Amino acid sequence: ILIYDYKIKIKILTKEGASWADGEIFLYENGNSKQTLSDFEASAYNLVDGRIKKTIMEQNYISREKINEKRTAVKFSIPEVRSGTVIEYKYRIKSDFIFAIPDVNMQHSIPVMYSKFIITAPEYFSFNYFNAGYSNINIQRKRGVGYKNVNTSGYRSSTFYTNIVWCEMEDLPALKREPYIWCLDDFRIKVEFEVSAASLPNGFLEKFTNTWKDVSNKLRYMSFNTDLKTSYPFKKEVVEIKNSKLSEIEKVRAILKLVKSKISWNGRYRLISDKLNDAIKKGEGTSAEINFVLHSALRDAGFDVVPVLLNPRSYGRIPNTLPTIDKINTFIIKVNLKNSQIFVDGTNLHTDINILPVNLLVDRARIYKVNDDTGWIDLTNIVKSTYSSVLIGNIDETGILSGTIKKTYTNQSAYSFKNKYAKYNSKEEYIKDFEKENNLQISNIEIQGLDSSAVVEIINFKGAVNSTADYIYLNSLVLPFMSENPFNQQGRILPIEFEFPVTYDIMCNIKYPENYIIEEMPKNIKYTLNDNEMNCQYITQNVGNNIQMKFNFTMDKIIYPASKYNELKSFYGMLTQMSGSQIVIKKNQ
Question: How confident is the model at residue 382 (pLDDT cuts 50, 70, 90)?
Fold first, then answer.
């Protein structure tokens, strides 16, 4: 049995910090195996009239909530907590899942003065450990004392020893969320464990998952491999697509759309399906159930398909040092064509060929094949994405700008636009929001291609620019590209992780009144970061009574170490300055 004891002591320094007196303890059960909570005690300590007053949490401050068939949350709220209070609580969990040692979090969202863990295990068990986060942990290991093994199972009594692993840390800073981080927990200072083998005195010997090939082989004997072979329920439609004259890629797209029309996503990521047939009948399911059906449909249509195992960005990266099924929470499908490979996922209505939910654009995923260790794959750059904008406008002598903007979004940019647009209840609501954001009046917006990987938006607009009796002031790109620098801290400890590689192309042509002249224009710029991993160029020129602006920003790399923070800060500072600069047009007296 696995027994773990927690002891926590926190001093509340602010009114907002009182929320730390509310907590949840999660218990898991599966079949006859379960986790049980015991020895739960909690108290609050306050200084009252120069004396320490202890308030013990009573049972009425504890409640249980059944989350699903396998998980229960024990919720508690320690009373009499305010600024200056010290809270203390402890509990024990006994678990039948002896091979699932929980991660030990040394760092939290508040500063930690002192943190310690000790793990003691009989020498019969071998386990690996890995320290995560941006700081090294001094983990120590030693052999413990001997214990008498009582003869209760028909084998001789013997003496066994324990293996002890422990660590102490002091003055850990708070782990605070910063812009452009996929999952903050990826960088938490913590220790992860894995039981790799058990060798008992009665001759029992079993090795557990310790390589990625072992993970694949373990999935082979689970329902995962069985569900990959499930028969596709909508055979007639698949046969029609298979026998059609569509290209191979268009057939894959048609099957993807078919599956998404038959089963909607319930918002839950899963690797294993509990009730695949029920999900098919209900028309709603988890990521596993949808992609099992998608896998079967593509296979029945004659395609070579392979699952790609991954963890969504928000769940944290799959550890490459401790291979385990427990850290994999979903999968997508790789389709091998004659001269290429493409990726599909059926959880979002707006996905397409090589266009995945941003949460699944991970830099670390594994291709699954039975009896095969196939290695890692990076999904962050499987398709090029662009945003282009062409603005044609005219400024009259009263300072009114009118014209047309044509925006084109491709691939992941189109996916992001479609998800954003879908949140509005109507086109009119979207227009109202657009007008407010850009300080413009919109006479019409036409949107094309919402069912494709390229969306075109055509906007007819009118609005006032800054002007006086003799001057007109025009933004360097008419509509600012960036209003403020997102990197405004002095320094940074965590890396920088953007959404996806993208290219922005913006062109503007503005005609101004003939009795005006250009007095001031922004300087042309060309800036490159890290050998073209990120670059931008801005060019403006005056041709007759027309101002022509061209801007290009390309981001090819999306993950940067903290050591590049100052360079990124400078780069984005330049972008912000350029975006906020003005073209000054003066009346010719």
Answer: very high
What are the angstrom distances between the C-alpha of 581 and each of 53, 473, 482, 483, 517?
Answer: 61, 10, 11, 11, 18
**How far is CA 55 from each of CA 19, 43, 66, 385, rounded to the nearest angstrom?**
17, 5, 28, 58
Asked if residue 70 lies in contact with residue 29, where contact means CB atoms within 8 angstroms, the answer is yes
Position 263 scores a pLDDT of 94
Distance of CA 292 to the CA centre of its chain: 22
pTM surpassing 0.85?
A: yes
pLDDT above 70: percentage of residues in the chain: 96
Q: Which amino acid is at 157?
A: S
Strand 386-395 and strand 502-511: the pairing is parallel
Gyration radius (Cα) of the chain, Å: 30
Closest C-alpha among 363, 355, 373 to residue 411: 355
Distance of CA 471 to the CA centre of its chain: 47
CB-CB contact of 263 with 290 (8 Å): yes
Task: Round to whole Å and give the CA distance between 580 and 482.
Answer: 8
Q: Give the pLDDT confidence score for residue 156 in this predicted structure.
A: 55
Q: How confident is the model at residue 391 (pLDDT cuts 50, 70, 90)?
A: very high
- Band of the pLDDT at 198, cuts 50, 70, 90? confident
Q: What percent of the chain has pLDDT over 90?
A: 72
Which amino acid belongs to residue 195?
A: V
196: left (phi over 0), alpha (psi -120 to 50) or beta: alpha
Q: Cα–Cα distances in Å, from 311 out to 69, 269, 298, 357? A: 23, 9, 23, 12
Confidence of residue 232 (pLDDT cuts 50, 70, 90): confident
User: What mean pLDDT comes out for the span 585-589?
Assistant: 87
> Could you give the dihedral angle defined by the CA atoms of residues 175, 180, 181 and 182, in that order, rounded to the nearest 10 degrees?
150
Cβ-in-10-Å burial (0-12, 13-18, 19+) of 330 comes to buried
Do β-strands 140-149 and 104-105 pair in parallel, antiparallel, or remain unpaired?
unpaired
Distance CA 116, CA 97 (A): 23
Cα dihedral: 92, 98, 100, 102 (round 10) = 20
Number of Cβ within 10 Å of residue 586's Cβ equals 13
The distance between the two most distant Cα atoms of the chain, rounded to a whole number of Å, is 109
DSSP at 174 = P
Task: Give CA–CA dist 479/464, Å, rounded.
Answer: 12
Q: Across-strand partners of 246? A: none
pLDDT of residue 130: 83
Nearest C-alpha neighbor of 91 from the set 29, 35, 170, 132:
35
The first and second tokens of residue 321, run together, are 């040092």
Between residues 128 and 364, which one has the greater pLDDT? Answer: 364
Tokens of 307: 């699952």
Of 450, 445, 409, whose CA–CA distance to 428 is shortest? 445
Q: For residues 482 and 487, give the distance between their C-alpha atoms in angstroms, rounded to a whole number.
A: 12
Half-sphere exposure (Cβ direction) of 452: Cα atoms closer than 13 Å: 10
Structural tokens at position 550: 């061209």
Average pLDDT, the chain: 91
Distant-in-sequence, close-in-space partners of 130: CB < 8 Å, separation ≥ 6: 191, 192, 319, 321, 322
Q: Is the model's pLDDT at 153 over the cut of 60? A: no
Neighbouring C-beta atoms of residue 376, cutoff 10 Å? 12
